[in-house]
Amino acid sequence: MKVLESLALAVSLGGMANTLQGQAARDGHIIAPDGVAIHYRVVGAGADTVLVLHGGPGLTMDYLIPDLSPLAKHHTLVFYDQRGSGRSTAPLDTSHISARKHITDLDALRAHFGIAQVVILGHSWGAKLAVLYAIAHPDRVARMILEGPGSPKPDARFGRNLIAWADSSALARITQLREAALAPANDRVETCRAFWKEFMRGYWSDPNDTLSMRRMRGDLCSYAGAMSDMTRVSNLTIASVGTRDYALDVRSLRFPVLVLTGRKDPMPLDDSEAWAAAFPDARLVIVERAGHFPHVEQPQLVFATIDSFLRGNWPASAKRVERQPNER
């Protein structure tokens, strides 16, 4: 049980400022200050640019690109593999994998594309990384979208909620599938996919709704080392983030923030409410009949909401969340 809860916690985003207009979808890489190559992909050719941060820590952009592609009709999206995973290979040790290194990589990408103030869309851990970046570089952010954001401080409820649907036999099966996915002798792409097919049930609004699950086109297991890299990168990154309540550090950040969360997200709703209350200019949108992937379960609503926000408008469903008296 502790192994599963640990995994669940780990798998929890002037002038030419925001434009890459006219460029075709393409792959490339930048070299971070410490020599690590960070692989990116540009999708779309809209007048504004959005940097998209995937979750994990330790997943890759491959699970987001297919399902977020409708946004590329009106925006230029820059995805990238965070260091240590996918095509952004790095030594998996404390000197190379940390929240500080992730922040440096994100800023290097911003500079590479010549963006003075960046628009960020972060999913899950990627949303928390977006916040950490904004705390470090508040003058370099124009606006942020936090979808299913990681909690402001460690919250064991996420891990428990992810496996609340599973009885003892399901838990045993998940453990066996995880061990098989990590075994070097196996076909680790197929065993990885077998693991996620079962474990992912806890991320959806209804763990038994296999139709909704099949709507997800993204790939969580795009290469043989996906499971092992995710585990190591997650452990190193989460340890470096520590136990601080980062909601305390955003109260002076004045740019607009849209917090978007599913009603049935295993990440507790009050964590998203805490982010929305902490930022001075934030609104919360709760997506009904959605879990941790609202853009998959309710795509039309989510993309309309994001498009409205990126045009500079607050969606009609976006609500202020008042800070509680004991949080002032």
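The record above closes out task 2.4. Task 2.5 opens with a second protein, given below.
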Amino acid sequence: MVSIILPTYNEAENVEPFIVELGRVMRSSAFDWEVIVVDDSSPDGTSSIARQLAKDYPVRVFVRQGDRGLSKAIMKGLELAKGDICLVMDADFSHPLDRVPDMVKPILEGKCDATVGSRKVSGGGAENWPLIRRVISRFAGFLAKGVTTLSDPTTGFMAIRKSCMDLTKLDPMGWKFVLEVIAKLDLRVIEIPIIFKDRKAGKSKLGLRAQVDYLRHLWRLYCRRYRIIPEFIKFCLVGLSGFFVDTAVLISMVDLLRLDPRLAAVFAFFVAVSWNYALDRLWAFDLGRRTKISHSYMSFVAIYILGLGIRIGVMHLFIEYAGMEKGHWYVLASFFGIVAATLSNFLGSKYIAFSKLFSRS
């Protein structure tokens, strides 16, 4: 059986003609099928219209309350699906109904685990799209290249073998459920060319919030695949806090204890490094808590001392050979030195101080 999942919100004008046309397509195929309409409490009566269609078509309707959203509606539809193959599509005629059998056949024939309707492969496209929309679509797809090899990762048209779905691994947000599935599940995927059309009736839900949710979703997927990204951001935040600690200790020791600023700077450096070590160990790095404090701390301090040398060395190169000693160009030289030292400190911390090298047995 094929379970066709339709997430809906205010699709009263579309849902009846859509299911009627879907019925025509499916009755001409050899598939057993059902339609699961998952409605987000549409105020226009979408769910009531869908329920009336259950007299003539294999339609089930589930109305969601509270936490709404397209991806979560699809998740609910997948939970309710009885079919061996689940197909997700929009109920506004933007996805071609006549391609539904073509989406299902490769899975039934064992050629793949999932199919994705693509506008970007040969034979695919979008009907009557203005240039700006094509550019935005291309750019959105480009942004996802680091987490998927799909030619059209922003499509919403997908069929998948239900046994391949592990819903516990999925935590979608926004409207790009297909991207979530392909990025997180190890699937054999075939892209099927489709001609995308704008909705026949109703209002598009593709607003600013949807675009922001897409960027947030991408960020989560990138952080999941490339764990070094959140680690580096946390490391930089810890380093920023360490700068304020260093400055506070320096000023306190000079003003209150009357120490020589150069001597005070040495104390401030070690206090700040100790502060950074504690936060990096507890928060920034996954293996941090499991490392031996004595060995990892000494390595951490050595790495930071090396980083200080790298900073000074980079400054020296720019000042001596790039003429940055004049005016305030030395500030830019210092910035380059800090960047180089930060990268050195991060890599040393991750792969030496907080690595398996010093983890507890």
